[in-house]
Amino acid sequence: MDVEEGVQNRKTAEGRNEMSLDQGAEDTTRRLSLIYGVDDRPSWGLSFVLGLQHYLTTVGGIFSVPFLLSPALCILPDDPSRGYIMSTIFMVSGIATLFQTIVGVRLPIIQGSSITFIACTLAVLDLPQWRCPSDGDLYAMGEANRTEEWMLRMREIQGAIILSSVFEVLIGYLGLVGLILHYITPLTITPTITLVGLSLVRHGVDMASGNWYISISTVILLALFSQYLRNVDTKIPVYTLVKGWHVIKVKGFQLFPVLLTTVALYIVCCLLTRFDVLGENDPARIDGKMSIVENTEWFRAPYPFQWGWPTFTTSSTLAMLAAVIVGIIESVGDYYACAKICGQSIPPTAAMNRGIGVEGLACVLAGCLGIGTGVTSFSENIGAIGVTRVGSRKVIQCGAIIMFVVAFFGKIGAVFSTIPTPVVGGLLCVLFSVVTAVGLSNLQLVDTSSPRNMFVLGVSMFFGVGIPEWLKLHPGIISTGVLAVDQLFTVLMATPMFVGGFIGFLLDNTISGTPEERGVLAWRQANASNRDASNQSDAYSLPKLRWHRLQKFREELTCLIRRSK
């Protein structure tokens, strides 16, 4: 009995020591029921499987970019250039994600193509000098002239992205982001994050509406796996050198809900296509996208300026500058959302600055490689963390490696692009709803019975939705006589998270209110206990350079040189 008590006491002491490393973050992690926290390191095999799940989450947002931009770039539907652009996006996203998780904000957040940049790109290409000829005229041009036609437009977008992204790099690495963090409050973050999710719902619904039976089945399966079956143990046979073949129990439905849902619905769509159950033009059919796979090369390495040397114009650069400003605000909101959902304290100023700086460098890389859009944090990835409860930085890095490798194999990227649109739409509807819920959860720190707070929240949310919708109904209503200024204000006012976040920021910092009423005091107290703990866990600290390994390598290299002499 004494031995058993001693063993039990030792286990208890070890458990307390482990909790003391990051008690504040662990409390939040336990409350959110995260399986793997930010600093947790699952095995490499499991990390790559979980990383593949995040990769699948980003596919919907990434493969839609070439399809959205191709008509404006004068790329025909059967042109394999769509696959090349998609592979390039995977490479940029993989590199940007690795840098963001290593030397950026260091949160488990994926970098990907931004809807905001796409809107600016379409605005630039809608100018009279860039409007495309008819499809008949494009076919009559011949392949060489058609290629030059769309590359000319891509080079215009590349130059605008490169110049505007330099501004983001300066904002990040000069520390200007940290200057406004003192004024960021729950009533600023709530409309920003909430409108990020709400503004993306339309894109998810549009993709899901192609076949509601498939998309609703996707939602049901995802809810079944991630919620109803999350505590069900799955027996998996594994082999190790110590134990040989044996069976382990894992919560497979909780770990892989997105992956299981995607595979299950993909098989269903294949069967429905094989037996011709679906209509000829049904988006859930698989055979309609096989031409992209057939026309895509097996191996192709994207490289800088592959479409030619970029062109630089003032009007296009100013239009992209609006996307950069909105992207910064959106990314700051995503950092808060990701930190909250991962059980981390508020990212420190230095981490915020590094994150924006890295995003700026990633956008410069995107401009050099030519993907037609910039790079920002992926809201879908944050939603996936909430659904899968896996917030490990290592998992996201493995997902980034998968994206980078897939970029070299055009056929693989093309196969992923055959995932039926309704399946991706169903996944995105659930993930965007989780992002929206994370934004609203910030209200728990605010006095919701205060008329002052209800005014700030209501006005920011209402105009964050109303003004962009009004601009959609009245295109070209902003007319100052200067095209670049028109594009700048149009893009800003058409972005819900910018409008709502800016109004919330302005009202909350100008209308009088006590710190307790505004939630500022609770906001700081809630993270004060976590801040010291997060410093101990080095969640936001840069990785330490292991000088002893470099010294050992230098000594071995010196000995090798001496022997050769």
TrEMBL record:
Tell me the segments the record calls region Disordered.
1-25
User: Quick check: keyword Cell inner membrane in the entry?
Assistant: no
Entry GO MF terms: transmembrane transporter activity
Membrane topology classification: Multi-pass membrane protein
> Superkingdom of this entry's organism?
Eukaryota
Which keywords has UniProt assigned to this entry?
Answer: Membrane, Transmembrane, Transmembrane helix, Transport
Task: List the lineage, top down.
Answer: Eukaryota, Metazoa, Ecdysozoa, Arthropoda, Hexapoda
The family this protein is said to belong to: Belongs to the nucleobase:cation symporter-2 (NCS2) (TC 2.A.40) family.
- Mind telling me which InterPro entries this protein's record contains? NCS2, Xan_ur_permease
Query: Where does the sequence pass through the membrane?
Result: 55-76, 83-103, 160-184, 212-232, 253-275, 307-329, 395-417, 423-443, 455-471, 477-507
What is the recorded name of this protein? Answer: Uncharacterized protein
Where is there biased composition of kind Basic and acidic residues? 7-19
Q: What is its main location?
A: membrane
Annotated compartments: Membrane
Q: Which GO terms describe its cellular component?
A: plasma membrane
